[in-house]
Amino acid sequence: MQAAISVLGMGRMGSALARALLKAGHPTTVWNRTPAKAAPLGAAGAEVAASVHNAVAASEIVIVNVSDYAATESLLRNGAVAAALKGKLLIELTSGTPAGAREVQDWAGRHGIRHLDGAILATPDFIGTEAGTLLVSGPAPVFEESRTVLGALGGNVQFVGEDPGLANALDSAVLALMWGALFGALQSIAVCRAEAIDIETLGRQWSATAPVIDGLVADLIKRSAAGRYAADDETLSTVAPHYGALHHLVELMAARGIDRTITDGYEAIFRRAIDAGHLHGDFASLSLFMGRPAHA
After folding, report:
1. pTM of the model
2. End-to-end CA distance of the chain
3. Which of 45, 108, 110, 295 is a plausible cystine mate for 115, CB 3.0–4.6 Å?
């Protein structure tokens, strides 16, 4: 018999989680503040709970996927619900901060609740597939006990450490990487529109250039991890040519009236690195100036 699991929150992601659990054969109970959102899961075979307390009482494992940790707190931190959770496993898959995850684990520990914190690096359509990625942090023995359940949600489940904040911290780091690419694409589109370049041409150039960019990012991460900031025989690019190219981009944007919010940020980081003597250092040397505020 598969473990009975309750899922709180039937947004697009929560619904995908519940469907994956049903597909894996888990008796699944669902709850949502707006009952109509839970109705399709009821039609798919889930039990629809009338209240959070009923949902928590129905299963030994409770998965929460709501808007934020404040929403989780409002659902779980009352006497009856907390008492019903005692001795059970709470898997928090709500996006939040590392500090928030640590606070949840502290609260759970005080109430006799086992707890894992997770971050989903996937869109709902990847949930339950081999490509679905979940980062999980918390007590290692609890994670090991939960591998099968977590595996139903995605084929790429990664335990990132016992500090409960690590899953959210790594999630934020990956999102920063993703947003860098997405905002860079938005800026590229603005330049193409200003210069009357067909957007499909940009798409073809991205396909051709993506392997080069992937290599540069991988090298940047590797060199930063090793602390190799000075240029050497393996350097792919130093700060100087990038800074020169940035000026060309800024000049174009100024001429065309394109928003410079992003490039002004680039300029500030470049200037701090150059003022510290890294003009001819490896591009990875810029990482030394991203870990603290500009005024520090």
Report:
1. 0.89
2. 57
3. 108
